[in-house]
C-alpha cells in the first residue's frame, strides 16, 4: 500500500502493527500538509514541517513551522494549523484528523511526529484524533492522539473542591 501525492511522489505505507497502522491514508490531508511544508521558515535547521488538521466541520486548516534565531521562540506547524482552525471555527472546534509532513535539507518525507507540546495541543481539541505521519522507516503511520500521549495533562476546573 502507498500514498501518492499530487505531482507523482509515491511513498510506502505500513500495514497495521502494534497499534500503529494506515488503514486509510488521507491523501487530501497529506497534500495540504506537504504544500504547507513548502512555506516553512526554517533557515537555521532546514527542517521544514507542514501540518494539516481537519475539523469536525470537514474543513481543512494548515500550518507550518516558523523558526527564530532565538530558538525557543519558534512555532510548530501543528500549533499553527490548530490556531488557524480555532480562528475560523471558534469555540466549536473539534479536531478529527491531523497529518504531519516534514522535509530536511534536500530529503523529502523524513520521520516526524508531533512534539510533546503539540500532542497536548491536539488532545485539547479531540480525544480520539487520527494522526498520520512518516516514521523512521519512511512509511506512513497512523495513531490516535491518545496513543501519542497516553498520560496527557488533564484538569477539570469545574470539579468540586
UniProtKB/TrEMBL annotation:
<dbReference type="GO" id="GO:0008270">
    <property type="term" value="F:zinc ion binding"/>
</dbReference>
<feature type="domain" description="CMP/dCMP-type deaminase">
    <location>
        <begin position="24"/>
        <end position="156"/>
    </location>
</feature>
<feature type="active site" description="Proton donor">
    <location>
        <position position="78"/>
    </location>
</feature>
<comment type="similarity">
    <text>Belongs to the cytidine and deoxycytidylate deaminase family.</text>
</comment>
<dbReference type="InterPro" id="IPR016193">
    <property type="entry name" value="Cytidine_deaminase-like"/>
</dbReference>
<feature type="region of interest" description="Disordered">
    <location>
        <begin position="1"/>
        <end position="20"/>
    </location>
</feature>
<dbReference type="InterPro" id="IPR050202">
    <property type="entry name" value="Cyt/Deoxycyt_deaminase"/>
</dbReference>
<dbReference type="GO" id="GO:0042802">
    <property type="term" value="F:identical protein binding"/>
</dbReference>
<dbReference type="InterPro" id="IPR006262">
    <property type="entry name" value="Cyt_deam_tetra"/>
</dbReference>
<dbReference type="GO" id="GO:0055086">
    <property type="term" value="P:nucleobase-containing small molecule metabolic process"/>
</dbReference>
<feature type="binding site">
    <location>
        <position position="118"/>
    </location>
    <ligand>
        <name>Zn(2+)</name>
    </ligand>
</feature>
<keyword id="KW-0479">Metal-binding</keyword>
<dbReference type="GO" id="GO:0072527">
    <property type="term" value="P:pyrimidine-containing compound metabolic process"/>
</dbReference>
<dbReference type="GO" id="GO:0005829">
    <property type="term" value="C:cytosol"/>
</dbReference>
<keyword id="KW-0862">Zinc</keyword>
<feature type="binding site">
    <location>
        <position position="76"/>
    </location>
    <ligand>
        <name>Zn(2+)</name>
    </ligand>
</feature>
<keyword id="KW-0378">Hydrolase</keyword>
<comment type="function">
    <text>This enzyme scavenges exogenous and endogenous cytidine and 2'-deoxycytidine for UMP synthesis.</text>
</comment>
<dbReference type="InterPro" id="IPR016192">
    <property type="entry name" value="APOBEC/CMP_deaminase_Zn-bd"/>
</dbReference>
<feature type="binding site">
    <location>
        <begin position="65"/>
        <end position="71"/>
    </location>
    <ligand>
        <name>substrate</name>
    </ligand>
</feature>
<feature type="binding site">
    <location>
        <position position="115"/>
    </location>
    <ligand>
        <name>Zn(2+)</name>
    </ligand>
</feature>
<dbReference type="InterPro" id="IPR002125">
    <property type="entry name" value="CMP_dCMP_dom"/>
</dbReference>
<protein>
    <recommendedName>
        <fullName>Cytidine deaminase</fullName>
        <ecNumber>3.5.4.5</ecNumber>
    </recommendedName>
</protein>
<dbReference type="Pfam" id="PF00383">
    <property type="entry name" value="dCMP_cyt_deam_1"/>
</dbReference>
<dbReference type="GO" id="GO:0004126">
    <property type="term" value="F:cytidine deaminase activity"/>
</dbReference>
